[in-house]
Design brief:
The structure is a single chain. By secondary structure, the chain is mainly β. The chain is built from one helix and seven strands. The chain has one helix at residues 68-71; strands at 12-15, 21-26, 32-40, 51-53, 58-62, 73-79, 85-91. The radius of gyration is 14 Å and the shape is globular. The protein starts with 11 loop residues before the first strand and ends with a strand.
Length: 92
């Protein structure tokens, strides 16, 4: 039997319905810490400090840019309670 860890489902739901305000929901059953957001490609979002998000909590962020779907990726970084760090890339 392998000692590889079990897979971990992405805990996020990216909400695009209210652009240019976008939502990120912690859809998991656990609190997440040191959550931060960054953009790859053109576009801008306000500066923020890493945050903690409870299970089911959402954060809303204004993200500006021309045609984000064509060339921009949102990168979400977080830590679980055991301090393992994860990154998730999400396209618009």
């Amino acid at each position: 039997m392998s000692d590889a860890p079990l897979s971990y489902p992405v805990p996020w739901i990216f909400i695009r319905d209210h652009a240019p305000i976008y939502g990120l929901k912690n859809a998991s059953l656990e609190p997440l810490k040191h959550v931060s957001l960054a953009l790859l490609g053109p576009g801008s979002l306000p500066d923020h400090f890493p945050m903690a998000m409870s299970a089911g909590e959402s954060v809303w962020v204004p993200i500006e840019g021309d045609d984000l779907a064509r060339a921009t990726t949102l990168v979400v970084r977080w830590r679980r309670q055991n301090d393992d760090e994860y990154l998730w890339r999400c396209v618009f």
